[in-house]
Structure prediction request, 618 residues.
Amino acid sequence: MKDLSPDSILDLWPWPAVSVDPATDRICAANPDAERLLGRPLAGESFLDCLDGDAGHLVVFADGVQHYGRHWTREFRLLLPGGEPRPCELNGTYLRTADGHRLLIALVPLDDLQARQDITEAGTLHRSGLMEWKRTQTFFSELERQNQLILDAAGEGIYGINADGQTTFVNRAAQEMLGWSAEDLLGRDTHAIIHHRHLDGTPYDHRDCPIYHSFRNERVSRVENEVFWRKDGRPIQVEYVSTPIYDGQVLAGAVVIFRDITDRKESERRLRDAMAEVDALRDRLEQENAYLQEEISSARAHYDVVGEAPAIQRTLKQVELVAPTDANVLITGESGTGKSLVAAAVHKASDRRRRSMIRLNCAALPDNIDSELFGQVRRDGRGIDKAGRLELAHGGTLFLEEVADLPLEFQGRLLDALRDQTITRVGEDRQRRVNVRIIACTSRDLSREVMAGRFREDLYFFLNVFPIALTPLRERTEDIPLLAAHFLRLACRRTKRAEPTITTGAIRKLVAYHWPGNVRELENVMERALIVSEGDKLRIEGLDASLPASGRPAGKILTEQEFRAAEIENLVACLRETGGRVAGPGGAADILGVRQTTLYSRIRKFGITPAMWNSPAG
Prediction:
């Protein structure tokens, strides 16, 4: 037998039909019924121009035909010459030809379908006589015979049941979706076979069946999430409509139209998972942005390294060597020597510079350290998921400031997370992979902290892969003029003031000072000098009152206990001078050249109370 071409197949279709090239939206051929319906030759026309509807729906319809083999839609109306758009059903199938892929689409006017149904029902209603008692039994078999072509062309599964629950017809799509043949189902209780079991295997009571309700209660039942069982024992998710059917005034049964939505449900699940992941990423970015804004507002600026002293050149060379690697870096040096600045320089010169450098001040950790570092998930729908600092630093750098102040009981958990590069948010069991480089800094001697039992030796060795030791400002006095001019320019730019002249006397005064607060103290001194200077020359004031090297005899080395006592005494003296005010211009943090959070942490650490700074100095 000779194969039929798409054009000859169209002539055999009982409905107006066209052959469409899905790649160009052009009509390749149309049967006479289609051309009579639309009132013109159709070959070569755009198929979308024949329709009243959205182009996106046509793309979805074409995808459905390609995916299922058959598909239908009622989203369009036919554009007829000189008349109102006519509601229709597009019923398509996919065909591969020598000229490429073609969509064979039947154009079924809905009013023609209704007319046929009305004719059928009218014929049934007008039957009378001795055969009256047979009418209900033969209703669905007659319906199947008269409409089998339409039923088999439908993409949805369709079957009918009589008032006794027995199957009267099953279309081809239903057989393909369920794996049961018509012979398996006709005359049998279909629902006992395909429906009346839940996913867990428990019986589905027939009294709860919406399909039975549709003809027992004489109402249409629509169900959007149900399970039918295939012949091979596999469940499929379906949505269906069960409609009662009447033979005259007598309820004859119901017609069930269903769709296999297993793939759609799986797509929806994947979409929900993807959206949840997008939401998580958005939350992370929002938290990271909020964190960065906080960093920007709390830090005055991140300046480039300034200086020509050999110690600075050595530091820059170390930065140049270690930055391209992923080695952990431990930066040591006195408070104010620029440890944060060097850490930023390492990060900016590394391959991770496109991601953020996330800071964690170990001297000012909140009570919920775990959630701060590892993150947390919402509980019972309350609150929001929060990414921790390690997760925010994924792909970038985590900077541990003043790592010696990290509580001993937490150091082991941190080391495990850093070594394994995995974290688990508080409130969940799922591990998350992270890729983080660690830069740490401290103003204390970590080796002594290890010997004193205040710092874990394994964490010390983990961090101390590439040490960078910063030189205090008093040991590189040749850089003081350069730094002073640099900080003065920045202060003038912030305050929008003209830049005063730094006199030779001012430079001598700056060079002669001990600088216990190092570069940070110099920055504060220059800003304070700009504020008090009224003429065109810079006036340096208050160096003797700054953070002291004061009563310490030159060359004397303090014990740890003496150093702590001196530090506490200095903090109390500073708080006494500011009346206990820590934050803001002229506050204790500003005078000492440290962050207010760091100073609050030290006050709590040393147990300093208002009574100590309110009492007279003695």
In short: The chain is about 40% helix and 20% strand. The longest helix spans residues 262-298.
